[in-house]
Amino acid sequence: MGERVNKGVWVEIHSILLAAGERAGTLPEDTQRLPLEMRVKGFLTAEAGLGDEVEVETVTGRRLRGRLAVVNPAYNHSFGAPLSQLSAIGGEVRALLRKAGA
How far is it, in rounded angstroms, from Cα 42 to Cα 47? Predict the structure, then answer.
């Protein structure tokens, strides 16, 4: 038996909303071949183990079900690497504004 996670712990759940082949026929073929997945973070509503079917309550109060995937998930998104084309724009815009007297 794996580690148990207490009620009220911040977790991430995972669920397949639509299997591959159940998706709308208007989607591109490469998208239709993949399942529509949901990943949601929330507070566990009852003690459970990793991989168990669980319910979470999100910060907005929604209650959703899925497989317990991650305990104390981190926010690890980013905006990607900086674009070199945009790096100089701020200085150029400030120079134009100074020149225009703004």
Answer: 14
User: What tokens were used for 70?
Assistant: 């991650």
- The DSSP bridge partners found for residue 74 are none
Q: Which of 43, 34, 41 is nearest to 16 (CA)?
A: 34
Q: What token pair was written down for 32?
A: 């239709």
Q: What is the CA radius of gyration of the chain?
A: 22
Each residue of 60-83: pLDDT tens digit? 999 999 999 999 999 888 889 988
Name the CA dihedral angle for 55, 73, 37, 5, rounded to a multiple of 10 degrees: -30
State the residue for tokens 């979470």. 56
The string of pLDDT tens digits covering residues 23-59 is 999 999 999 999 999 999 999 999 999 999 999 999 9
Count Cβ neighbours within 10 Å for each residue of 21-58 and write b for 16 or more, e otherwise.
eebeeeeeeeeeeeeeeeebbbebeeebeeeeebbbee
Say what the pTM is. Answer: 0.73
